[in-house]
Amino acid sequence: MIQQERESYVIDTSVALKWYYQAEEKEVEAAFKLREDYRQRKIDLCAPHLLVYELANVLRYKQDLEESYIQDAIESIYEMRLLEPATSETMKEAVRIAREYNTSVYDAVYLAFAEGHRSWFLTAHRQFHAKVKRLPLVIFVADYRGD
Hints:
The protein is globular. With about 150 residues, the chain is α/β, with parallel strands linked by helices. It has helices at about 15-20, 30-40, 50-60, 65-80, 90-100, 105-115, 125-130, and strands at about 5-10, 45-50, 85, 120-125, 140. Helix 1 (about 15-20) packs across helix 2 and helix 1 (about 15-20) crosses helix 3.
């Protein structure tokens, strides 16, 4: 029997945030389905290490969260084993994308990372998605079906 290769996705912080904080968030169900598909090994997920820094920072400013919850969320991200270092080539491409699409390098690095991994890029960041949605590998999280 020939084993089919799993689809591979790069996620950004806007997707991971939905796993740990749902207040005022949309597209939560799609984000949970994505995480469950990864846990069941139906798909592959990865992200640059930047994700954990951004996630910790966003959660830190959520006044309704206990510090222990934030620490557990960070530990959970590490336990998922999806974080990888960004290469110098990825960072150079992120700068190019940021300039071309008038966005931050912080946002662009995820797209550059996806390009380098030849993966789909999933985001829930509406403003960034609006700027790069014409690119073929970009998917808004609400459009994730996993089928």
